[in-house]
Structures are given as C-alpha cells and as structure tokens.
Design goal:
six-stranded mixed β-sheet; Gyrase A, domain 2; Four Helix Bundle (Hemerythrin (Met), subunit A); seven-stranded mixed β-sheet; flat; Rossmann fold; 456 residues; 3 domains; alpha/beta
Amino acid sequence: MQDIILALATPGGESATGVVRLSGEGSIELAEPVFRSRKPLTAVSGNTLVYGKLFHPENGAVVDDCVVSVFRAPASYTGEDTVEFSFHGNPLILHDAMDLLLSRGVRMAKPGEFTERAFLNGKLDLAEAEAVNDLIRAHTRHALASARAQADGILSRETEEIRSGILDVLALVEAAIDHSDLDERFYEPSTLLAKIGNLRIRMEKLLASAPSGRILSSGMRVVLCGAPNAGKSSLLNLLLREERAIVSPVPGTTRDVVTDELSVRGIPVRLSDTAGIRAAADPVEQEGVNRARRALSDADFALAVIDGSRPPGSDDLALLSLLEGKPAVVLLNKCDSSGYLGESALPETCAFPVLRTSAVTGEGLTEIEEVIEGRFFSFGYRPGQDTLLTNARQEDSVHRSLTALESAVKAMKSGAGDEIVAVSLRRARMSIEEVTGQSTDEALLDRIFSRFCIGK
C-alpha cells in the first residue's frame, strides 16, 4: 500500500480559491473525520462534489468552508482514491488545512508524484505524462498546441505503430530461428528489408522533428551579437517591448549575457543580448566577449547587429567571419540616423540577408519577427499535422531504435544468421518502447518527474 500524499494544487499567494489534493488508498476515509457535511464522505459516490466544513476534531474549530471533490479508484487522475478540497484562497487557511491533514499521517507529495502515480497505474504513458508538464509550462500558442497534441497521445500512437511493425518483423525472424530444422521459409529477405525500410523512414521523420519540438518545449535560442555600441541592447528592449537592458553611448556597457523570454508569433524565444565582440584588454570585458562567443555557438539563430551610420570596422568584419556557416541575418541598425549609409556600410562579401532597423523608430521590428518565424518553420514543422519529439530523452530513444534497425539491415545483407538479426531487432523494440515507458527504470522516472511542479 502506497502512502497517502498531499499537495497544494494551486499557486501560492492570495486567490479566489485554493485547492489541496490528497491521493492514495484510504484518502476518503482519512478525510471523513475532519470534514463535516450532510453526508459522510465514505457514503459519497465518485465524481461528486460535497459542500461542508474542514474542522479540528479535538476542539471543533473550523478551518474553512470548502467544497470537496471525491474521485474513487480507478476513475481518477492518479488511478487511486483522490480527495480535493477547494477553500477560500487565503494562504493562512491553506497552511492550516495542510497542517491538519498532515497531522493525520499523510505526507507531502514529491514534485510530479501525482502524475507519476497516474503513469504507474496505467492512466497515461510516459510521453503523455511529459506532455502534462509541457502543457502547464507552455507560454505560446504553438507550444500549447503541441503539448495538447502530445497529451492526447499523438506521439504515443506513432511510436506504438512503429513498435508493432518491429514486432511483426521480429516474429518472422524468431519463427525462422525456432524452426530452423525445417525446410520451410518463413520470410522473404527482400520483403523483410522493405518492411524495415518503411519503419526507418517513419523514424527518420520523427528525428527530423526534434529541433522543432525542442524549440516549442524550451524556446528558440536567438542571440543579438555585434560590435560594441551597435545598438544590440536597444534592439533587445524593442523586441521585448520593455527596458530590460541598460542602454548607454559608452561602448562595452553590456558585460554579461542578458537573456529573456518572449513569444514571437506563437513561437517561444529565448532572446539574448551579448557583450560587444571585439579584442578587449579589460579582463572583465574579455570574459563578457568569451560568454558572447559561447552563446553564439549554442544559438539556433543569430541577429548580427551592425551600425549602419558608419563604415564597417574590423570588429564588424570579424563578426561576419565568425558567423560563416551559421543561420543568421544582419540587422543594419540606426536607419533613423541622418548619416545612415545603407548597405554600403557592409562589406561586399556579406552573404547574409540584411534588414534595415531602428531601435528609435521601431523600423524593422516586424521584419525581425518574420525572419525568426521563418527560421522556426524552416525545420519543416506543420502545426496540427506533424508528430514531434519534444525532449532529448525521446530523441535518444528513437535514435537508438533506428540505429538498431540499421544494424539488423546490415546483418541481413551480410548474410549473418537470424540470431544476429533478432538481437538487433529486439534492441530496436526495447529502445522505441522507452518513449512511452514500456521499457524504463526507476532512476529515469525520478529524473523525469522531478521536473514537475509539486501538486501535479
């Protein structure tokens, strides 16, 4: 028998309503002696709301009026008996209510423990459980739509179809192994290779979705880079629509990487302003330049800011050289300046798309958002149509499964025995099962659910 767990299921602070959740065998019986209503909780059917008062049984002192939601196993989120108390959202009331319930022998839930129990009790698989966390944390409409599709099982269905296909192939190979003493042929190699080929195509398509899935889950890493005083911090403030970074005419004001989140046309973006990239004698500024280079190295997309009111300098040329081979666009800034040079401020060798921008007038803001949106969709994602891998764990599982299938193909083509082919196919099956948690271990579960908030 598992412990009865308790958590606050609504955010802290004052609110209209605060919810305290209990789950585990015996939850209803535990709550009944401290809840006064017209009907005992143990006599209430599942999926029922009951109005009453939470009180201290020793002295009868009332904690608060509340509405209790009763869910009976297995028809609950966790698959266990569950009781949810809805109180007035005063933090003092919620604190007293939790203290009272804890005094009756329950314990505080760990992060994600309610959802972990839902997974362990077969209410949802691991990919769907991860989607619950993504659903809570999604900050943009595309991220929310992706999480909703994942929670509805779109990835689970796709990986289950792939797993089923692997099992079909494996069954034929194992039948050949089991009856190797017979002259009967259990499969045609060309047919089997064609089946595996179709599975590989589906898995490669899934893997190609990983960059889009990671961006929707964690945000596109977009870096503003350029020489000192090119206007990077001003453009950061323009894009964020708030004064986030310090702006000064003194070159080298930004010494560290300043990062904030925003939504660009429904796409989550982690936008970073970096120190001006130049040779610096000051050790603090040099560390800032080093951090700028690292941020640029990790970026999904770079916005290279060049001051269009002066001829290109050595720092500008060095920046463009540094960006070679990276997805980037040049923001030719300060187009509001009377001395604006236009594209003549760029070297002839500049091969990047160029946008006119001004942090003063806002010119170029729409175009910057358009190129960020274009970069996201360049990965090939079609909202509402494509299945996504949304984290590194899922991507690794599919990659290992695909690698195992490729090993099976090599074994077949080289004339290796069916036993060798079967080993690779079993490995492919076990790896793809990890996506939904059919094959997993306790340490992995702990790591996944520790990222959840307490109460979910």
